[in-house]
């Protein structure tokens, strides 16, 4: 039996994000990939593993061809926003087992530009086949499903709309420290509540922005770390879980699959939630942040509202800085945003985040971070625990 190798993230990057009217999704993939390789200081010839989803008919074959790669290990798992945490787990397992030496994860999307140019509509349809045939006739949209879940939490636990709004307010406060965030102007709870209604109880600022952008993450076996220009960030543990496709099959709207993926990731990493110093959590809607914090064990079930209301999510003065770049609510959200969570977590652990850098009491960067992605309408979850080198 081959001894399992340690696995590190050595390269991370974003493509141009926010507004990229003249770029194609393929170009954003390539830009992010080149930047991640430059970040690591490695040549692309080392890459023998590749993971991509969301573009082309035969992803990742088409994207690998565009990038000039001929991988011998591939992954095209597609489970919505949690895709990239799940792929990172698969890639780490492959590298640890000796099936690959370096795996590149890459994503790019022109979701915003496509709508503006009329290449797609603002409403993304998941079709009406399979389990969806029983819900589509009733007009359930993606946003409505999240809104229903949020309302259930409010009824069950007394969570208030003001507490949910605090998630958006604190995400924007973090984005104000990020020069690359799409929206940086501070907002108030009253401004969140007074915005146009999208799906009750969500007003506009409870929902993520629509942007263009791409991201890339490079994972390598431990023996290649010494060749890199960056400090390694180690993959300590991961977990994945799926819950439901039809809302009627979701046992409890107040519990997400992060309750399973998080527990597995922390157990495998050998750390407790209380030891985590920075959390990057998928936030297509404010409720996602709140319920994921509960399910990862940062507070008890039903206590998320009180937890977020005290400013704990802020980079400046927060007990648990969350979505330090501003998240999908303010920084960027080009579709399946899970890869952006990994990029930001790695940058925080390497101490590269400038004004938005999280620091310990002695001024040093954090040592432990978690990235937790959610897919569909809480259908899937992937959680990755990372540690500084």
Summarize the structure.
With 389 residues, the protein is an alpha/beta fold. It is 32% helix and 17% strand. The chain is built from 12 helices and 11 strands.
Query: How many helices?
Result: 12
Question: How many strands, what sense, and barrel or not for the largest sheet?
Answer: 9 strands, mixed
- Provide the helix percentage: 25-40%
User: What is the chain-wise order of helices and strands?
Assistant: EHEHEHEHHHHEEEEHEHHHHEE
Mean pLDDT: 95
Strand order of the largest sheet: 3-2-4-7-1-8-11-10-9
Spans of at least 5 consecutive residues with low confidence: none
Q: How many strands?
A: 11
Approximate shape? globular
C-alpha termini separation: 27 Å
Bin the strand percentage.
15-25%
Rg estimate, integer Å: 19 Å
Structural class: alpha/beta
Topology diagram in text:
Layout: E1 7-14, H1 25-40, E2 49-51, H2 61-67, E3 73-75, H3 83-96, E4 102-109, H4 111-116, H5 142-157, H6 161-175, H7 189-193, E5 197-199, E6 202-203, E7 213-221, E8 233-242, H8 258-269, E9 278-281, H9 286-295, H10 304-309, H11 327-330, H12 338-350, E10 368-375, E11 380-388
Parallel strand pairs: 2-3, 2-4, 9-10
Antiparallel strand pairs: 1-7, 1-8, 4-7, 5-6, 8-11, 10-11
Helix pairs in contact: 6-9
List keywords for this structure.
389 residues; nine-stranded mixed sheet; two-stranded antiparallel ribbon; globular
Descriptive report:
32% of the residues lie in helices and 17% in strands. It is of the alpha/beta class and 389 residues long. It has a nine-stranded mixed β-sheet, with helices on both faces. Strand 2, helix 2 and strand 3 form a beta-alpha-beta unit. The mean pLDDT is 95.
């Amino acid at each position: 039996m081959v001894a399992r190798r340690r696995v590190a993230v050595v390269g991370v990057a974003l493509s141009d994000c926010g507004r990229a009217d003249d770029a194609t999704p393929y170009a954003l993939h390539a830009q992010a990939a080149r930047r991640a390789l430059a970040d690591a200081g490695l040549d692309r010839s080392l890459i023998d593993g590749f993971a991509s989803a969301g573009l082309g008919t035969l992803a990742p074959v088409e994207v690998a061809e565009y990038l000039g790669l001929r991988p011998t290990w591939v992954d095209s798992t597609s489970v919505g926003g949690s895709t990239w945490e799940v792929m990172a787990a698969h890639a780490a397992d492959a590298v640890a087992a000796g099936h690959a030496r370096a795996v590149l994860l890459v994503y790019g999307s022109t979701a915003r530009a496509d709508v503006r140019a009329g290449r797609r509509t603002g409403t993304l349809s998941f079709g009406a086949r399979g389990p969806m045939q029983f819900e589509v006739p009733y007009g359930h949209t993606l946003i409505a499903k999240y809104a229903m879940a949020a309302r259930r939490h409010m009824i069950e636990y007394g969570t208030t709309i003001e507490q949910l709004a605090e998630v958006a307010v604190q995400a924007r406060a973090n984005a104000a420290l990020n020069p690359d965030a799409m929206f940086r102007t501070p907002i108030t709870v009253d401004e969140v509540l007074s915005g146009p209604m999208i799906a009750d109880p969500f007003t506009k600022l409870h929902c993520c922005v629509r942007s263009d952008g791409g991201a890339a993450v490079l994972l390598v076996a431990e023996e290649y770390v010494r060749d890199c220009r960056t400090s390694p960030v180690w993959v300590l543990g991961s977990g994945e879980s799926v819950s439901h496709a039809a809302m009627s099959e979701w046992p409890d709207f107040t519990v997400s699959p992060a309750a399973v993926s998080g527990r597995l990731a922390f157990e495998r990493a050998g750390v407790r939630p209380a030891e985590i110093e920075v959390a990057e959590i998928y936030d297509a809607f404010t409720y996602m942040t709140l319920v994921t914090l509960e399910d990862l064990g940062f507070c008890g079930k039903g206590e998320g509202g009180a937890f977020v209301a005290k400013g704990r999510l802020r980079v400046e003065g927060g007990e648990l800085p969350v979505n330090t770049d501003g998240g999908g609510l303010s920084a960027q959200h080009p579709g399946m945003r899970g890869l952006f969570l990994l990029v930001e977590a790695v940058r925080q652990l390497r101490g590269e985040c400038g004004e938005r850098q999280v620091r310990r009491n002695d001024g040093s960067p954090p040592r432990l971070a978690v990235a937790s992605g959610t897919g569909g309408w809480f259908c899937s979850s992937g959680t990755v625990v990372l540690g500084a080198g």
